[in-house]
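Thread: Newbie trying to understand structure tokens

Hi all, I'm a second-year student working on a class project, and my supervisor (Dr. K.) asked me to get a predicted structure for one chain before our next meeting. I've only ever worked with sequences, so writing a 3D structure as a token string is new to me. If someone could post the tokens and maybe explain what I'm looking at, I'd be very grateful. Here's the chain:
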Amino acid sequence: MKNPSCLDVYTLLMNYIWRTVKIVQKHAAEDLVTCQACFKRVNGGKDGGVENHLEMGKKLLAAGQLADALSHFHAAVDGDPKNYMAYYRRATVYLAMGKSKSALPDLSKVIELKPDFTSARLQRGNLLLKHGKLDEAERDFKKVLKSNPSSREEQEAQSQLKKSDEIQRLVGQAQSDFTRRDYGSAVSHLDIIIDTCVWDADSREMRAECFVQLGEMGKAISDLKAASKLKSDNTQAFYKLSTIYYNLGDHEMSLNEVRECLKLDPDHKQCFSHYKQVKKLNKQIQAAEELIQQQMYSDAVSKYESVMKTEPNVPQFILNAKERMCHCLSKDQQTAKAISVCSEVLKADPQNVNALKDRAEAYLQDDQYEEAIKDFESAKEHSENDRQIKEGLERAQRLLKQSQKRDYYKILGVKRTAQKKEILKAYRKLAQQWHPDNFQDAEEKKKAEKKFIDIAQAKEVLTDPEMRSKFDQGEDPMDPESQQGGGHHHHHFHGGWENFQGFNPFGSGPFNFKFNFN
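---
Reply by user tm_fold:
Sure, no problem. This is what the structure looks like when written as tokens:
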């Protein structure tokens, strides 16, 4: 590993210590058992001790106490390395523990010590078959048939031999399907093979490769996970898993799997260069998400732009980055940019609920109420119980209704996002322009009066934070109908211009004010 981080060094170190401890524990246990064996042998002659261990082991095995049974059989093997029954019993315990890899060498030892022990040979054949070692398995089954077996053994050997032949044929077919790139047929053949050869890592790896080609990534992942356990030090399986997760845009899982590869082989070229890439990407995405948490949206957007530079070739990372940028721009009220980035996401992924919600919010900021309603409605179809969507949709519908009535922002000609200072500035300009005293013609004066009241009301609502926030939620604080029990704000204004004379928006006596501000 070129320049490992502390964490990686720590992980490797812990792994090494853990392995060493395990080895020491194992030897300690074996030494203890061996000691007991020596002690027994000294006390009760050679056979006494070994027979005793075999007897105890058998009882414990029958009682299902596998670990204890195993240590007695270890002792028996150590006490008499030529005792084929000791190996045979130990193999039985290994099988009961699901450790078929350890059982194989014990069965081979039994057969070497006692070549006519057919039932051991039959068992070895069955194990070899499960591991996908077909030629070796067939040799065992044929040998069983030649060594005058019992009729039950003969029957089993014959049917297993037939099965093995059938599988040999299927393996040939699967390989030629694979070479022809007919991955669907290869899979259907491999399914039958794996059904029998459950511990065969090669078939799993081949099927995983077919699934990748067929775009069935979930299935490829579960085959590769099995293969990584079936074959020890299977760095290739971890590397493949990491790249599949990476192409699915899952940087965290990708990092986990590539670390497993490097634990097995810290100098693995492919894994190491992939690790550096995933780690860099992971760091950038985490940083961007922290910025979003802190509501630093424009910094988060630039961080996601660098994510897209780090990985320009995986569509899923680009899409994820854009989805988060769409969110940030919408939150940051960068309305036009938000709508454009969210639309890019929705072009690639029309059912993306997050992008629909964020684009709807941006449309609301832009007074495009119908568009916002459409987005909230599509989002609702794909995510029925989302409270945010329900509230957003209701708000959009209220705002649409409101836009068809009076819109105080429009009256003053300011944006929804305007600060108080801009609102007052716009108000003063318009109040000057539409003051009724500026108009002589009766009709004109009447129109100006109405306009002037609207302008004054707009200023009152938009400079009062509580009234403004009500209005932004789609209520009209000046309209008794839309009031929810708070209708005291509009008393000045009933009865039109006559009642209005006493109200001075400029706060300096009756209405003969001088406009001395420019």
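A couple of things are worth pointing out once you decode it. Confidence is low (pLDDT under 50) at residues 37-46, 485-492, 507-518. Residues 6-62 form the longest helix (57 residues). Feel free to ask follow-ups in this thread.
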